[in-house]
Amino acid sequence: MKTFKLATLFILVFTLINCGGKEEKKEAPSYKKEKAAPKKTAPKADFDSEIKASNDILLTSNDAMKFSQEILKVEGGKKVKIVFRHTGKMSKEVMGHNFVLLKKGVSMVSFGNEASKASSNEYIPENTNDVIVHTKLIGGGEETTIEFDAPAKGTYRFICSFPGHFAVMKGKFIVI
Q1: pLDDT digits (tens, 9 = 90+) for 23-56
Q2: Would you say the pTM of this structure is higher than 0.90?
Q3: Alpha helices in 20-134 (DSSP H)
Q4: Is 50-175 CATH 2.40.50.140?
Q5: Domain boundaries in the chain?
């Protein structure tokens, strides 16, 4: 009986293997291949140039340590007004944010490390020459406004100087 079962199983497997899937190869219709025209690629656009300049800016921040804009473009020789709003819920002692516009050539890391020691001055080092302008430190639901003359044409960096935030809360301030 055991031999019969094995023989039946063998025949069944053999039949299944040999009966399946004989497909005839069909030739694809032959079409005349035309030489494709070379692809024309547009020059890579400079993203910074696509941003419209505005000297009246609404900049927001949140509890996830993000600025709403990473590139701010303003016109030189004019007043700049920045309304800075913290849209989060956390207090400034826990998740405070500010806007700090650094002078050209200032290291964000060095400034940020120095700022983290200046808790008594809302994380702006006293007697620093590295800052063009800054807002006060604000917490969730708060807003502050600063007005200043645009600095000379060029690209500057802005950060939040609350301890550790400068690593992710940073951007370019472009004066045209």
Answers
A1: 555 555 554 555 555 555 545 445 566 788 999 9
A2: no
A3: 47-50, 92-95, 108-115
A4: no
A5: 50-175
